[in-house]
Amino acid sequence: MLLISCLFLIGCGDKAKNQLDSRVESLPYYQEASFTPYWFENGTTAQKTFHQIPAFNLTNQEGEKVTEATFKDKIYITDFFFTTCPGICPKMTANMDILQQEFRNDDEVLLLSHSVTPETDSVSVLKAYAKNKGIDSKKWHLVTGERSHIYDLGRNYYFVEENLGEAKTDDDFLHTENFVLIDKNRQIRGIYNGLNKTAVDQLIADIKTLQKE
Question: What percent of the chain shows pLDDT beyond 90?
Answer without folding.
Answer: 77
